[in-house]
Amino acid sequence: xxxxxxxxxxxAGVSGEGSAPASYVSMEAEIPEVLYRGMKEFIGAHPNWxxxxxxxxxxxxxxxxxxxxxxxxxxxxxDDLFSRSQA
Length: 87
Known about the structure:
Elements: H1 5-13, H2 33-45, H3 51-65, H4 71-82
């Protein structure tokens, strides 16, 4: 896969000249079936979570743990970390 594929997807999702970038980007990914089953079981046991929240949380966790310095990523990671008791 081309390293710049993600950037092209994001650029294609930005509409119109002068408009702000979208706050959400749609993404499609293939994951191992065992991860899918685990996510499905987790969501079934935690009705406050959905597949979008799980994937977003997992991605924020990965990025933060691997040195991403973006404040929004850190905020997402910390919000999810300290809101687990509510989930």
